[in-house]
Write a structure and sequence with these properties.
- Helix content is about 65%, strand content about 10%.
- With about 130 residues, it is mostly helical.
- It has a single domain, classed as EF-hand (Recoverin, domain 1, Orthogonal Bundle).
- The two termini are about 20 Å apart.
- It binds calcium ion.
- The site of calcium ion has 7 residues, from loops.
């Protein structure tokens, strides 16, 4: 667990850094696409939530997760083939990070982060660009 200071800028800059964000999205996609099929099924996305939102996997009842998956696929499975390809997944990740940024707001906050968490990457990037 690391302590970091961040605000919405930390996250939006991370998303706006296209090369960096693409790498990040590709890494997550590869990690969630456990069978290397090149697209993510509902079960894989469900598993993915456990990885990037550890809170969700324990504190949210199954129906809530199902409802969230339903919403995600309705909105982001643009070709309606029942799975998310890399492009669709990238839009989802962009949306999630922007939602996180709005939640944080413009004032600096102190957060405790696991080293592998989504936000940790954003913080590390900000620190790297400052030095
Ligand atoms: Ca699709």
């Amino acid at each position: 667990m690391n302590i970091a200071v961040m605000n919405s800028y930390t996250v939006t800059e991370f998303v706006n850094d296209a090369t960096n964000f693409d790498t990040f999205v590709n890494e997550w996609f590869a990690m969630i696409d456990t069978n290397g099929g090149g697209s993510l099924s509902r079960d894989q996305v469900r598993g993915g939530f456990g990885m990037f939102m550890p809170l969700g996997s324990y504190s949210h009842p199954q129906e809530e997760v199902d409802r969230m998956l339903e919403l995600i696929f309705t909105r982001f499975d643009e070709d309606e083939n029942g799975s998310l390809d890399l492009n669709e997944f990238k839009k989802l990740m962009t949306e999630i990070m922007n939602a996180v940024a709005r939640g944080i707001g413009g004032s600096p906050i102190i957060v405790a982060l696991d080293k592998d968490s989504l936000l940790m990457k954003a913080v590390q990037r900000e620190l790297a660009t400052q030095s």
